[in-house]
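Students often ask why we bother predicting the structure of a whole assembly rather than each chain alone. The short answer is interfaces. A chain on its own may look different once its partners are present, and contacts between molecules only exist in the joint model. In this exercise we take two input lines together and write out one structure for the complete complex. Read the inputs first and try to guess which parts will touch.
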Amino acid sequence: MPAVLTVDPRSGVPIYLQIIEQIKRSVALGVLAPGEQLPTVKQLAVDLTVNPNTVARAYRELERDEVIETAPGRGSFVRGNGSVEVSRAAASDVAAESLLQAVREAKSIGLTAAQIRALFEAALARWFPEER
Amino acid sequence: MSISIDHLTKRFGKFTAVDDVSIEIPTGSVFGLLGPNGAGKTSTFKCMLGLAAPTSGTVRFDGKSLQPQTFEHLACVPERSALYEWMTAAEHLEMQKRAFKRYNEKRADELMQLFSLDPRKRVRAMSKGMRTALSVVLAFAIEPQTMVLDEPTSGLDPVNQRSVLKLIIDASAQGTTIVLSSHQIGQVERAADHIAVLKGGRIALAGAVDDLKAESKIVEAIFESDTAALNGLSSDARITRVEKTGRILRLTVSAGSDQLAGQLTSMGAQSVRIVDLNLEDIFLNAVDGGQTADIVEQV
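Now the answer. The structure tokens for the assembled complex follow.
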């Protein structure tokens, strides 16, 4: 697997969640393709210098979410069916949560809905200039 | 090997170093034992290794109390170097080879090179870091099933500290059970899956690192005027600390941050935010806090 993962163990976000989120993001973006092999739990744990049980927990949850599958003796792979859709949905959830936080923050400092909408329009205009 | 510490108490005269500590460590787990100096970590380790007799309680390995054959699979890096000043590194390795059937000579050579240790050097002439590195080499060269590592990176430079962490992680991935203590909480945060925080010989906090991080938060609320009455907040078991500074109310919580944030909003807070805590924050909070929430009023 390419070096797509960087975890920040000092962050308040649990390491296994960081691993899950980044693998899903990589699958959503096609950096990890369906059928591609993931490093073993041990390899990833040593590479990231994090606890192997933490990596194993991330892999278990990714299997449960049908993003990866593990063949005994062969290793873990990005699933062929549905993994991209699941990962895109997860990445979209992460984006939605960021927007929610941003609106909450804007509201908590006293901005009105109209003011927040104007800020949002300005942000859209910056990232989608062609749609102006 | 799994390790069960059950109601362990160790007294030295009138002083209680370890006070009714119970810890379960499953096989292959890396367990971080944290605590300020004098919290009872080293005494706990001594009881585990048979270097001190518990006043009461038991330590079991795979369900059995410490037996001579347990030592064949048990390695430790003690807090204070247990090396012989007048002996060379090579002589220490030779002793380890004679004492342990599991001693792996090739592995020992690799480890000596990893830490750039000179086998001909006498311990007397070694720096603090070199002594720690040699203790680490001796421990890992016997490829043990269980390790007790008390400050295994003290005196080491950042490169060698990272090497020790990688050795711990690699051993853990192969099923070795490791108990680790370090004042460098960032290392424990990487290497450990579970931790306990000792304070005054007792467990102040214990759990899976990821669960503790997921649940421990600061909920910070800003009120329109002076903070609302703290009705009931200080008796909520999930709140470990309450800080009040004029219009700002800051709650340190061990669980239920979303619900408490909602509660503060309904109490009329103008702004509420939830802040993540890392292991160092969680540790300091556990060491600082009491049994019930402290209300700290600041001017």
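Check your guess against this: Chain B has a mean pLDDT of 90.
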